[in-house]
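Morning!

This is the sequence you dropped in the shared folder:
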Amino acid sequence: MHQLSGYASAAVTPGAATSFGNSLKVVAQSIETQIEKKITDGQAATQGKLNSLFEGLEAANKAANSGKTTASGKDKSWFECVADEQAKRQAAEAASKGLADSRSNEGEACQRQQDNAGFKFDAAGKYKLDFECDHSIAKNCAAALKTWKESVLDKMFTDAEAALEKDETDYTALKADCDAKTEARVKAQSSLDSAESAWGTQRAACGNLDPQRRASMCDFGTKVQAKCSAEAEYAKLVAATKQAKGDADSEVDRKSEWLASRTTQCMIAKSMQKGLDGAVAGADLDACVAQVNFAKDVGKLNTRQAEFDTLSKSNACVDGLISFFNGLTWSVPAGDKPSSKSYTRTQFKPQLDPTSGNFDFCSGAPAPVLPPPPGPQPTTARVACENPNHATMKQCTLSKMGVCHGRVRMGHDSRWTAWKTIDGQFPCSNKWFGGDPAGGQAKECICESA
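The structure's back. Tokens below.
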């Protein structure tokens, strides 16, 4: 500009001043319409990219937060499910012990009943059975016989009758005890079946929740990876805006270009003002530089640094331990009837480096979904004997009265009556079943309960 002004002053030609001014106006307009427009358009385009990437980062972080909430909820459901499964295993164990106790009680009670089934009155040594009379004395024998009968035979009969009555009372109490213990055993069996069924159903439910839990954790890991990718893209663009002699998104370069453009326009304006008679000086250049305000004229990029810093701390893109529901997991024992003590809890905080991959357990095949277990199978048991301790079936020593909640039949070996539905006490007899399926053979009554 200094040289241009000097050359113009040295050669004063008519009309040259006008031509000089017009030329400078053209240059100034060209700078404003082409160079400066490119700068402002470029700045707006970069801001648009920043806004778009930041919105994507916010959405990715929101999705990761939602994924964490879902995974923690699934982890909680599974953890509490297994806790309930362990409790149901404990209930089944208690029911099994209860059945064993009730069987023992039934055996003892019914054996006492059987042991006291017979009655015998032993009069030996308790009564004077000798009878004497004198036939030489009239009516002596008749009177003596009457006295002996009243004092000996009648008393023997009364004593035997009293003993029989006492034995019958004792036997009735023993029978009632046996029947009660039998009913208790049947109920204990039913309780055990129900407890095992409840445990099996709970186990299957927990088995189905586990793969859902793991899948939700893996989904969370994937969403954190997506968030970290979005974070890296945004950080890359922000870095590009700060790079001198960088690419089209460099705000540093735009500031330099804007300074040069506005300073040039200012110097042109001063040159036009002074005309061919004056020269622009260094002070003019300093004044023009001082007038340039990029932030006001173009506007600085809003990188939302404070918000970005906050987002960076959420679902941090660093290698670390992740905790879900309560930071614990269950070790679930295998087997049809594992011990409740085999259920153990351990710390569960899996490692995640979202910049390189997902959780380790996400690379394996998904756990199979277990079908619900079948319902409890009916159980059959001897509950009464048609002819206890008979020679043809000495092993059947139970009472003739049985208790069943289901259905019963009577018979032996391959000869049986039809099943009869019953819910309580019943007599194990030909009359009650409506016939004798095995004549001359002692029979048993068996109960089938669900």
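Headline: The radius of gyration is 53 Å.

More detail when I'm at my desk.
O.
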